Model the fold of this input.
Amino acid sequence: MASFPILLLPVLLLATLFSTPVLCYINPSATRVQQDAAQASAYGTYIVFVEPPRSDTGEDAHRRWHESFLQSSRAGESAESRLLHSYSEVFSGFAARLTRAEVDAVAKKPGFVRAFPSRKLQLMTTHTPEFLGLRKGAGVWSDAGYGKGVIIGLLDTGLHATHPSFDDHGVPPPPARWKGSCKAARCNNKLIGARSFVGDDDSGDEMGHGTHTSSTAAGNFVRRASYHGLGMGTAAGIAPGAHIAMYKVCRPTGCDDSDVLAGLDMAIKDGVDVLSLSMGGDMGIRFDLDPIAIGAFSAVSKGIVVVCAGGNNGDWDSTVVNDAPWILTVASGSVDRSFSAELRLGNGKRIHGEALTQKKNAKASTRSSYPLVFSKARQYCDYHNVSSIAGKILVCEAIMTKTQKSDIRNIMGAGAAGVVLFNDETSGYTTQLQDYNSSVVQVTAADGLILTSYATSRESRPVAAFTYKNTLLGISPAPMVSWFSSRGPSSICIGVIKPDILAPGLNILAAWPPKADSATGPFNIISGTSMATPHISGVAALIKSIHPDWSPSAIKSAILTTSDIVDNTGGSILEQLHMKASVYDTGAGHVNPAIAANPGLVYDLSITDYAGHICSLLGDHGLARIVRNSSLTCAMLPKVKTAQLNYPTITVPLASTPFTVNRTVTNVGPPTSTYTAKVDVPSTLVVRVFPKTLAFSKAGEKKTFSLTVSSHGVGKQEFVEGSLRWVSKKHVVRSPIVARALVLRPPR
Done:
């Protein structure tokens, strides 16, 4: 791979050209009290298979049927307090807290099929490694040695060096090529680099963001990690054997682009393999005016994979940031876990919610229901006369502001029994958790409609009660695109699908410095594309460990072409309104690290290819700013149009006139292998691939194919999606195809 020198612009010029990057996370400003003790140790969690109910098949009927098996529970405890989860779709059955004797009693009841103890799952970085198919001692983790020998550099807010996530047990010394230095409270084989670029020598983390992202990418194994008892398990980063180098480029007031570029510069010099940036600037900034795009190009030219957050600008079109083709851009999705709290209504309905403050459930004999109140005039919990709310549960719309949090604190101080916060229409089914240090349960927008309707109904006394369920796994559908995750297409480079990939970013548990919040730590739960980004950085490190000679583009291709396009129900991945997510929500799909290291074929790109593309977009002026190599001019380079860039995703014009793109794939699988083209497109598209078969006789062999697309009868659709799959006996290499009305927005 060709490399080019890095020439940093003067600070004064930077100040005039660049906007200030911001961290791509949503800070819940969480505080809380210690959770009460766990349930009695005599209980175990059992999964019980039963026959389905004979009559009504509704959700309430299933739950009542399942509760009927638990009537022999201990005195003073109701069946519903023992029932952890009721299954009606994946199978007929339930999960419950039972003693061995109670299991024997349940087994004698008509309708029982079988029961078995629930396994103790390893909840690692909020359970995400397990959710992503990573298993200790097996698969890609074992093949990659957990990422050993790879250095992940993070540009962030610093790092709490003495956190147990950064212990170096089992981590070998860094490779000899490492040239960096470490100025931290503790440096070891795990934390090999720590430097500050914000005007001091303190690489510590007073905000928490950098500690969280670092441990998500490459934190070591930490047993009995939890957030005050929630999500209990063994925490670990996606590449727990990799080395960490922290470049502190952000203050509490933000991240100056000059500091960001200084950190990028040093990271390249130091010899990192992967760069993780959970920050972003304004939308629609030309690449030659974007500090991250410029710095990332320099890093990629040195063989470094650069992974960046796609932004938290919400679900509007063209809100994605960090959209340069040489960057691996990450969107945020959910995981299959809930910090469950249930609201039982007086009419018998049960509303599933979540809460980060969970109290010990009252016994059935003492549990009380409270009046449920919703006021349209006080929709956001802005109650000023608090004397009338004592002993009531208030229903409010969540707006996640400091003012609302203060109002809730006043409400609870005045004796309210609790608060239910429902999502707005935009958030939909994305419940982004905050800790209110009191009885506050958060529910979806759909359940908010049910609650407000019930609370304002003509019933003489609408009432409700809370039941806390702690941590439930196997929640579906998952993943689901987070409401805040920025969407494509790129307004600068509409012919390249951005974001590139979807990864876990909602309610992520990872390391946290105690000084960042006295009531939080050593782990915290926060959300954002900031949290999704280090998941992909860790995956890139695993692939780099197995394939140290692969280019950044090859690693990106491997991640994209092996991604999943279905959720854990087997259906299409959904967005926050439970509508089918588009390619501009998810990118190529949801990351699947278990197979990404063995993709079969890759779409590779050289720095010369990228430079030719920059010429096509921005001419010599843009080339000089980004590539920084005075010996290169656009006259020397082929101008590579966006559609012809050898990217692992494909975008063509939505037109009746046939349009052809060419792609080249490299064999990284078995030396002798044959791939057949499979096209999945709607009837409004006609797609032809030539040749339809690619036969390889050796590793590293390249084959070029053409793909021609035309459309008919699409009406006013802005774009149409499909896919191309190259299928062999051992591999499926999938690329999204988008036929789009290519209307470019003028860059700023």
Q: What stands out?
A: The longest strand covers residues 463-473. Residues 338-471 form a domain with the Glucose Oxidase; domain 1 fold (CATH 3.50.30.30). Confidence is low (pLDDT under 50) at residues 1-19, 28-41, 119-126, 744-748. The chain has four domains: 11-30+124-335+479-599, 34-120, 338-471, 646-748.
